[in-house]
Amino acid sequence: MPSLDAARRRLRLSDAHISVLGLLVEEERLPAELSSALAELREAGLIGDDDKIVADLYPLVSTLMAPRVIVRVEVTGPLGVSSNGAVISDEFIFTHEAWPGSTESEYVPTEPDTLVWSLARMVDLHRDFAEEADGTEVITSTMGLFDQVVARMEGGAFEGPEDVAEATGAPLRLAEILAQLNCMWRITVVWKGVAQTENPGGLSVTALSVWDCGIEGYWLRELPAEPVSDGAVQASSELKVRRTSAKELWGLITDLLPDGSELSATQSQTTP
Fold it and tell me: What is the pTM of this model?
């Protein structure tokens, strides 16, 4: 069920609830498949009998309907993929986090100075207990061999990294770090900036892909390079991961976000 914590301005909403709110604001007709989501919003007191949105919802709805920057955070772990992120408008910033297996996400207002902290928390960026390891270590392979290693490790049979590497032909070191894999995460940031020659639509995209390998530390995937377009990665595509640290990743997350000059350029393009 959707809900509102007015004291902390937190909201729990599903994608269906968000769709209903957007259609109501735009005064468009709701399809039949959204009727249950509409009823839930009414029951929760988030919209009135006249289908007017309560005032507490307007900051979030206005941000979702006119975003300037969208941040998507995908975390792939034992319970599947969770989709989290942030939405930034001229006036507000909201972060949203999903719980694996739940259709609803928690939306929370965030201040600019705490945005990087919020994104870091979404991926559980934590102290690296293997910081003394070689920060220049690099592993190269192919995406096909990576898929084989992961599939074999998820197959259920108990095999050590040596056995997996021998069976798949993958580098032993790749099998060793994947044996300690906690999760993989990717952060993608999209905003409308100065049009790029390689991107006629004018959308700027930055992204970062990381493996959290527990006692083996953090590994930054440098190839295939992010952002990766659909269909661009094949089994023969080169895989390159580099040992990194939580400190470096904090800086890389910060660098993903557009700076003030880029946002100013965005605003000047959209201002009549």
Answer: 0.89
